[in-house]
Structures are given as C-alpha cells and as structure tokens.
Design goal:
alpha+beta, single chain, 4 helices, binds tetrahydrodeoxyuridine, Cytidine Deaminase, domain 2
C-alpha cells in the first residue's frame, strides 16, 4: 500500500468525531518528502469542527512548509470521500494543483487533481485592481 495512504489511515485513528461518527485521516506530502498528518476534530458547537485536511495543511504551514506534492485522504463509507469545499479552497491557496488520493481504507482508491475538484477557483489574482 502507498505509504501516504498508510499515514492517513494511522492519522484517522486519532479522529475526534463523537458527533458525526465519520472519521477522517489525511496525510500531506511536502516537496521534501516529509509527511504532515491530520484527523478531523469535532466540537459540541458543531460549527467549530475542523476537517482532517485542514489540520494537516495548517500543521505544515505553521512549520514553514510551502511546497506540496500529494494529499491522501482516508474515510470509510459508501465510497472514498473527497475534501469539502472549504478545504478545497484552502488547499488551492497554499498547495496549488495538488494530486489527491482518496482511499476507503480497504481497497478502493481514486486519484484526482485539485483542479478537477475546484474548477475556476477564486484566488488572489482577483484582488488586483
Ligand atoms: N470532514 C473532514 O474531516 N474532511 C472533509 O473534507 C469532509 C468532512 C469531517 C468533518 C466532520 O467531522 C465529519 O467529517 C462529518 O462531516
């Protein structure tokens, strides 16, 4: 198995998901080959929940990492789940057209690019006058 998927699977074990029961693990590989992991962290207010992908990305950014290669996401459900819209937007900003590997942790794998999931993104270029 892809070691990045294995890392996301291990991260998923730490998910704090008592409300949804939907556990997510993410592993983000940077340009140097280092791996930054994350799991979803829920809260009783629900709205303060942070997705696994964002935890992984923010861990890397906060350590100064700015170049990324791949992101693996592991969920267990009817089909491997793609990142939510908010995560797509943030990943686009900092990781660009990332390769995204979706896994159901058993055998089903899908490989996509972020540009497939987020066509015509809003980005900083629109802020210029
Ligand atoms: N979740 C993620 O961690 N990543 C996503 O991209 C989709 C949703 C989490 C948030 C919440 O804890 C649970 O999955 C159900 O939405």
């Amino acid at each position: 198995m892809d070691s990045l998927i294995a890392a996301a699977m291990r991260a998923r074990e730490h998910a704090c998901a008592p409300y949804s029961g939907f556990r997510v693990g993410a592993a983000l590989e940077d340009a140097d080959g280092r791996v930054w992991t994350g799991c979803n962290v829920e809260n009783a207010t629900y709205g303060l929940t942070v997705c696994a992908e964002r935890v992984a990305l923010l861990k890397a950014l906060s350590e100064g990492v700015r170049e990324f290669r791949r992101l693996a996401i592991v969920t267990k459900g009817a089909a491997p789940a793609p990142p939510c819209g908010a995560c797509r937007q943030l990943l686009w900003e900092y990781a660009g057209d990332l390769e995204i590997v979706l896994s159901d942790g058993v055998g089903a794998i899908q490989i996509l690019r972020l540009s497939d999931l987020l066509p015509r993104p809003f980005d900083a270029s629109y802020l210029r006058r």
